Amino acid sequence: MQKLRLLSLLLCLLITSCSESNPDTLLLFNNHKFALQPGETVIQADSGIAATYKQRYNNEATVQLPLYRFVRGKDYLLFIAAPFHASLDRIAESRNKVQADTVFSESHDRQQFHRYYRLGKKYCSEWVFAMDTASMICIFGETTERGIAETVLNPSEMKKRITQ
């Protein structure tokens, strides 16, 4: 019986030592990581969050952007998606079709696409980044605070948060 307890304890220690232990980092794919800022929390996406995401960001039939993780920050939301069988150009074309009250900026090159706009009371920042030749990530941020959209949700800040 004591050997069984010892074996169970060793197994638990092995499992916990191999798991992601840094709560300030979100493990992405292909060994990439996304640094969480103070006050950000990874939340389990419930049906309401999933419906909001699908309606706003994953509503184009030709481009699949399944929700990977949902992050809640102080006064903003981040939807992190893992593009599925979609090129950067196709995603950019799809996202440019989204109607906006005001488009503040757009950019598109070989490595990334970014669009910052206002839709109703929300300021939205969409960023698609080719992390390497095999991986892309989409980060959709929204807030009611323009200052947050221009600082926390801007593409240069997002890019700094992705490491390998």
UniProtKB/TrEMBL annotation:
Signal peptide: 1-21
UniProt-listed PROSITE patterns: PROKAR_LIPOPROTEIN
Keywords, sorted A to Z: Signal
Protein name, as recorded: DUF4367 domain-containing protein
Species lineage: Bacteria, Pseudomonadati, Bacteroidota, Chitinophagia, Chitinophagales
